[in-house]
Amino acid sequence: MTTIDRNTCDIGNLAADLAHVVDAIGTPDFMDVLTRAMRRAVPFDNAMLFAYKEGERPRGPYTDIAEPAEARIVVDQYLLGPFLLDPFYSEVQQGRTGGLACLGDIAPDEFFASEYYEQHYRRTRITDEAGIFLAVPDGAVLVYSVTRRHGGPAFAPGEVAWLRALAPLVSALARRHWAGVDLGFGSAAGAGNAPDPIAAALAALGENVLSQRQRQVVALVLKGHSTEAIALKLEISADTVKVHRRHAYAKLGISSQAELFAMFLDLLSRIVAPGGERQTPLKSGSPAV
């Protein structure tokens, strides 16, 4: 569990650590050296790097979680489908390519009561997360996240300020390192032709028994939006949202968000990772050979 016993960063040692990060660009140690420098500025439990590209399954090229069983929950299982409901992935989908975002600032209004939060964030024991976004030349967007886990406190405003101040430098260093690394994505020509997995899963949900509006409502429910927020997004009344949700549940033969999430996740696991294939992270952010 993370403890915080200081309010100011050790500037001298941070500068030295960042110099080591520069020296580590292009080496297998880059991500570990970067993570060590970030811990000098703000204490956190674990760091992760995810790469997203349109029409492709995401990649998880780095985490500093040492225990394999724990890494499978936090990284591998996330890549099998739950990423599609993740607020950080939603930011990428909406075109974000830079800056820092904290979970509490980008999550839907009922995210922390959603089945996705219960099933993923509680299992990973992540209590707070801050991510730095950066785009690389092949069209992928990377998100370098630092997390508080196991009941640790949320990032304090002063810590967020440090992370935000460091974000442009971290982005520049990581962009330089990852620009020449093969992250395992397909060719740019074929990537755009892949179906949207959320749309594919929703189309398969109930074998197309849902109307377009019902699919929209169900997708927003899964992501953690309240009835009122869905109504605003779709420009319909809250009562109409409730009717669509009730009819969708009836058509699917379910009665709760938990059942909806389980059904959706089962479909995603088959669509995003056919045949049960699992994406294995590269070790320590090393360039692929």
Short description:
This protein is of the alpha+beta class and 289 residues long.
Can you describe this structure?
By secondary structure, the chain is an alpha+beta fold. It folds into two domains: 16-188, Beta-Lactamase (2-Layer Sandwich); 195-275, Winged helix-like DNA-binding domain superfamily/Winged helix DNA-binding domain (Arc Repressor Mutant, subunit A, Orthogonal Bundle). The protein is built from 13 helices and five strands. A five-stranded antiparallel β-sheet has the order 2-1-5-4-3, sandwiched between helices. Residues 1-7, 188-194 and 273-289 have low confidence and may be disordered.
Main traits of this protein?
disordered C terminus, 2 domains, alpha+beta, five-stranded antiparallel β-sheet, single chain, 5 strands, 289 residues, Beta-Lactamase, Arc Repressor Mutant, subunit A, 13 helices
CATH class of the largest domain: Alpha Beta
Q: What's the architecture of the largest domain in CATH terms?
A: 2-Layer Sandwich
User: Could you give a short account of the major beta sheet?
Assistant: 5 strands, antiparallel
What is the H-and-E element order? HHEEHHEHHEEHHHHHHH
Provide the gyration radius in Å. 20 Å
Estimated helix fraction: 40-55%
Strand line-up in the sheet with most strands: 2-1-5-4-3
